[in-house]
Design goal:
The complex is a heterodimer of chains A (about 290) and B (about 450). Chain A is mainly alpha-helical and about 290 residues long. Chain A has 13 helices and no strands. The radius of gyration of chain A is 24 Å and the shape is flat. Chain B has helices spanning about 1-30, 40-60, 75-85, 95-105, 115-120, 120-125, 125-130, 155-160, 170-185, 200-210, 215-220, 230-245, 260-265, 280-285, 290, 330-335, 340-350, 370-385, 390-395, 395-410, 415-435, and strands at about 30-35, 65-70, 90-95, 135, 140, 140-155, 185-190, 270-275, 295-300, 310-320, 385-390. Chain B has two domains: about 25-145 and about 315-370, D-Maltodextrin-Binding Protein, domain 2; about 145-315 and about 375-435, Periplasmic binding protein-like II (D-Maltodextrin-Binding Protein, domain 2). Chain B starts with a helix and ends in a 10-residue tail after the last helix. With about 450 residues, chain B is α/β, with parallel strands linked by helices. The chains are: A mainly alpha (about 290), B alpha/beta (about 450). At the A-B interface, α12 of A face α3, α4, α13 and α20 of B.
C-alpha cells in the first residue's frame, strides 16, 4: 500500500513537472496578455502610449454601436452555415466513404487537400473565381446559366461567398475526423441492421450518428468557438468591408487603423465572453451526453 | 558523478565564452534599424542600396562602425505595435500626416529640428511639405514622396469614341463621354477595391477636392458651420452614386474587383478611364510596348462651376526617428541626405516616393515618356499652387476610414447620403477636438 502511494506521488510529480513548462508558457503568452486586454478595455488606449482609465465607456459605446450588432449578426450567420453545411456534408460523405474499400485513401486525401492550402492562397484563388469578367460568371454564361451569375463579393453576397471558400477548405478536415470516428464503430452493428432490413438512412441515423456522438459534439463545440473568432478568409478576401464585417475584423480595424486599441480590447473581451459562454454551455451538454 | 560535474563545468565555460564573444561583437558593431513600409521587391532593393550608401558614408566620415538593419513591408499595424513596445526601430515610416500627431503627442518622435536646421530642410522641401513636418514649432518628420491623383485613359478607346482629353472640360462633356463609353460596351471608369478598400478613397479624393478646395479645407478644419452636411458635398456624393448606379463606375462593381482585376481590365482595353494616382507607373512601366502606348494621362475634368481641374496632392509617407533612439545623429544624417538629387533618380526609376522638393530635371530624363508626362503634370500643379487635398494625407484617420468604407454603404443603399455625411461630420468634429487634424496647406 505504502509503495503504491509512493509510486502515485512520484507519478504526480512527473506529471506536474511535465505540464509546468507548457503551463508557464501558456500563462505568460496567453493568460497574462488576456488579463491585460481586460484592463485595457476600460481605457482609451490608442495602441501607442496614451492610456487613460475611462470606466465602462467602451462597453457603453460598443453596445450602442450598430456596427457591433452587424458584425455579431454576421458571426451568427457564419456559425449557422458552419454548423450545418460542412458538418452534414462530411458526415454523409464519410458514411459512404467508410464503406468504400478501394480508393478510400486516395479519395480521403483528395477531399483533405484543400485543408493544407493556406487562407491567403485560397482567398486569392477564389477572388479570381469570383471575378465578374473572367471568373465563374463567364462559365455560367457559356453554359447558358447566366441567371446564376452574381456579384459574388458585393455587400449582399460577400459573407456567403467568403464562407463558401472557408467551407471548401474546412469540410475535408471534418471528413477525416468523422471517418476515423466511424471506423471505431463495431461493424457487427451494421451487419445486424442489414439482417433486420434497415436502409442506409436508418443505419446512418441509428448507428453512425450515435456512434460518433462524442466526436460530433466536439466538432460542434469547436465550430461554435471558431465561428466567433474567425478572421483569416474574410480579411484576405474583403478586409471585412461592407456586408462581411465580423467581430474580429471590427476589432482589427479599431486597433490598428482607427487608433482605438482600448475599444478593440472591449470587443475582444465581449468576443471572448461569448466564446466562454458557448464553450461552457456546450461542455456541460457534452458532459451530460457523455454521462448518458 | 565526478564526470558529470566536469561536463557541467565545461558546458558552463563554453556558454560563458559564447556570451562574451557575442557581447564583444555587439559592442563593436552598432546597429541602425530602419523600418520601411515598402513591399515591392525592386523598391525594397533600391531603398536598401540608398540606406547602405548613407550608412557607409556616415561610418567613413565619423570613424564609426554602424551596421544597417533594414526591415521592409512594415505597414501601420506592425509599426504601431512595435512603437508601443520597447523594441523600437531607429527610423521608421508613418503612412499619413494625420497619424503623426498621435505619435508626437505620445512622445514617440525624435525632435529633428537640429538636423532640419543643419541640413536646411526649410530651403530644400516645398513649403507645403515643410509645414507638414512641423508640430508645435518643432520638426518631427520628413514628409517623403509627393503624389497626386490623376486619371489614366485608353487612347484607342478615346479615339474610337471620337473623344480627346482636351474636349472633356466640364461635367457635361465628361458625363457625355461616360455615357458614350457605356453605350459602346466599355467600362467608363475602372476602379477595384476588393483587396484594397483604400482604392475607394482615390476617386473620393478627386471628387471631394473638386467640390471646392477652400470649402474642403475649412470643413476639415471645422470652420464651416454645416460642415460635411452642406449641399455642395451632398451634390458630389449624389453624383458619384448616380455614376455607380448607371454602371459608369466599374459597372457598379468597384468593391468586388481586385486592384489586379482593375489593371487587367484597363490594360486589356475594356475600360476608358482608370482612376489612380501618380504611383501607377509601377504597373505601367512593365507593360508590353503596344499596351503601354495606348495609355494616356490627364487631370479629371471639373464637376462644377466653382472649381477648376487640379491635382489632389498627398505625401506617400512620413519618415521619422524614434524618440528613444540611441543613434540620433546618424538618423538625422540619413533622413537629411536621402533628399539628395542623386538618390531621387534611383527612387523615380523604381517607382518609389521622391523627396517633395525641386528635383534636377536630369533625374527625370531616363523615365519613359508617359511617366515623364505625368511628373510634368505634378510639377506644374505644384508650381502653380494648383493642388488639392487627398483623403489619406489631409483627413483625420477615423474620418478618412469612414469616408471610403461608408461610400460603399451609400452605393449599396444601406445608408442614405445624408446619414453618410452626418457621420463624416461627427467623426471630423470628434477628431478635431482630439487634435488629430493635420496642417492643411493653402492652395492657390
Amino acid at each position: 500500500m505504502q509503495a503504491n502511494l509512493g509510486y502515485k506521488k512520484r507519478g504526480n510529480r512527473v506529471a506536474v513537472a511535465s505540464l509546468l513548462p507548457i503551463f508557464l508558457y501558456h500563462f505568460l503568452v496567453i493568460v497574462l496578455p488576456s488579463f491585460n486586454s481586460v484592463v485595457n478595455s476600460f481605457t482609451n488606449w490608442n495602441g501607442l502610449l496614451t492610456k487613460e482609465f475611462i470606466g465602462v465607456e467602451n462597453y457603453r459605446e460598443l453596445f450602442g454601436d450598430p456596427n457591433f450588432y452587424e458584425a455579431f449578426a454576421n458571426n451568427l450567420r457564419w456559425l449557422v452555415l458552419f454548423l450545418t453545411i460542412p458538418i452534414i456534408l462530411s458526415i454523409v460523405v464519410g458514411f459512404f466513404l467508410a464503406k468504400t474499400h478501394r480508393g478510400q485513401v486516395a479519395l480521403r486525401a483528395c477531399y483533405f487537400l484543400p485543408y493544407v492550402i493556406s487562407a491567403a492562397i485560397a482567398g486569392k484563388i477564389f477572388a479570381a473565381f469570383y471575378n465578374p469578367y473572367f471568373g465563374i460568371n463567364t462559365l455560367f454564361e457559356q453554359l447558358g446559366l447566366a441567371f446564376l451569375a452574381k456579384d459574388w463579393l458585393a455587400p449582399a453576397n460577400a459573407l456567403y461567398s467568403v464562407a463558401t471558400v472557408d467551407m471548401w477548405h474546412w469540410w475535408g478536415f471534418l471528413l477525416v475526423v468523422f471517418l476515423s470516428a466511424m471506423q471505431q464503430i463495431d461493424p457487427m452493428l451494421y451487419e445486424s441492421a442489414e439482417v433486420e432490413g434497415a436502409n442506409e438512412l436508418q443505419k446512418l441515423w441509428f448507428i453512425t450518428i450515435p456512434g460518433i456522438k462524442r466526436t460530433l459534439l466536439f466538432v460542434i463545440l469547436a465550430t461554435m468557438v471558431w465561428s466567433i473568432s474567425t478572421f483569416d478568409y474574410v480579411w484576405v478576401m474583403t478586409k471585412g468591408s461592407s456586408g462581411s464585417s465580423l467581430l474580429s475584423t471590427m476589432l482589427y480595424k479599431n486597433a490598428f487603423f482607427k487608433y482605438r486599441a482600448g475599444y478593440a480590447c472591449a470587443i475582444a473581451v465581449v468576443q471572448t465572453g461569448i466564446a466562454i459562454v458557448v464553450f461552457g454551455g456546450f461542455a456541460l451538454i457534452q458532459k451530460n451526453v457523455g454521462d448518458e | 558523478m565526478k564526470k558529470t560535474g566536469i561536463l557541467f563545468l565545461v558546458m558552463l565555460c563554453s556558454l560563458g565564452l559564447v556570451f562574451a564573444s557575442a557581447q564583444k561583437e555587439a559592442n563593436e558593431k552598432q546597429i541602425i534599424e530602419i523600418s520601411s513600409n515598402v513591399t515591392e521587391e525592386g523598391q525594397i532593393a533600391t531603398q536598401q542600396t540608398v540606406f547602405e550608401t548613407l550608412v557607409g558614408e556616415y561610418n567613413q566620415t565619423h570613424g564609426i562602425q554602424y551596421e544597417l538593419r533594414f526591415v521592409s513591408g512594415q505597414g501601420m499595424d506592425i509599426t504601431n505595435t512595435r512603437m508601443s513596445s520597447k523594441d523600437k526601430p531607429d527610423i521608421f515610416t508613418i503612412d499619413s500626416p494625420a497619424d503623426v500627431h498621435r505619435y508626437q503627442k505620445d512622445g514617440l518622435l525624435l525632435d529633428l529640428t537640429p538636423y532640419a536646421k543643419q541640413y536646411n530642410w526649410e530651403g530644400t522641401l516645398f513649403d507645403w511639405a515643410y509645414k507638414l513636418s512641423i508640430i508645435d514649432d518643432k520638426v518631427y518628420t520628413l514628409p517623403f514622396g509627393y503624389e497626386g491623383m490623376v486619371v489614366w485613359y485608353n487612347k484607342e478607346i478615346m479615339g474610337k469614341l471620337g473623344l480627346t482629353p482636351e474636349s472633356l472640360t466640364n461635367l457635361a462633356s465628361f458625363e457625355s463621354a461616360l455615357k458614350k463609353a457605356k453605350d459602346n460596351g466599355y467600362i467608363p471608369i475602372m476602379l477595384g477595391s476588393q483587396d484594397w478598400p483604400w482604392a475607394q478613397e482615390w476617386y473620393l479624393s478627386i471628387l471631394f477636392s473638386y467640390t471646392g478646395r477652400e470649402l474642403l479645407k475649412s470643413t476639415i478644419e471645422g470652420k464651416e458651420k454645416q460642415g460635411w452636411n452642406q449641399q455642395a458635398f451632398r451634390t458630389t456624393v449624389e453624383l458619384v452614386k448616380s455614376w455607380n448606379d448607371k454602371g459608369y463606375l466599374a459597372d457598379g462593381k468597384s468593391f468586388t474587383l481586385t486592384s489586379d482585376d482593375a489593371i487587367n481590365a484597363f490594360t486589356s482595353g475594356k475600360a476608358l478611364f482608370k482612376v489612380e494616382g501618380t504611383w501607377a507607373p509601377y504597373w505601367i512601366i512593365p507593360l508590353a510596348q503596344e499596351d503601354y502606348e495606348k495609355i494616356g494621362v490627364m487631370l479629371h475634368p471639373a464637376i462644377n462651376a466653382n472649381e477648376q481641374p487640379h491635382m489632389p496632392l498627398a505625401v506617400g509617407g512620413m519618415w521619422c526617428a524614434s524618440a528613444s533612439t540611441k543613434h540620433a545623429d546618424i538618423s538625422g544624417y540619413i533622413l537629411s541626405n536621402m533628399m539628395r538629387d542623386e538618390f531621387q533618380g534611383k527612387f523615380l526609376e523604381s517607382g518609389l516616393d521622391i523627396a517633395p522638393k525641386v528635383i534636377d530635371k536630369a533625374q527625370f530624363a531616363n523615365l519613359s515618356p508617359i511617366v515623364q508626362e505625368m511628373w510634368k503634370m505634378v510639377n506644374t500643379a505644384l508650381d502653380n499652387g494648383s493642388f488639392g487635398y487627398t483623403t489619406w494625407a489631409f483627413f483625420p484617420p477615423e474620418t478618412r476610414l469612414y469616408a471610403y468604407e461608408g461610400i460603399v454603404d451609400v452605393y449599396g443603399e444601406k445608408i442614405t447620403i445624408d446619414a453618410y455625411l452626418a457621420e463624416l461630420q461627427r467623426l471630423n468634429t470628434k477628431e478635431l477636438k482630439e487634435g488629430f487634424v493635420p496642417v492643411i496647406p493653402s492652395a492657390k
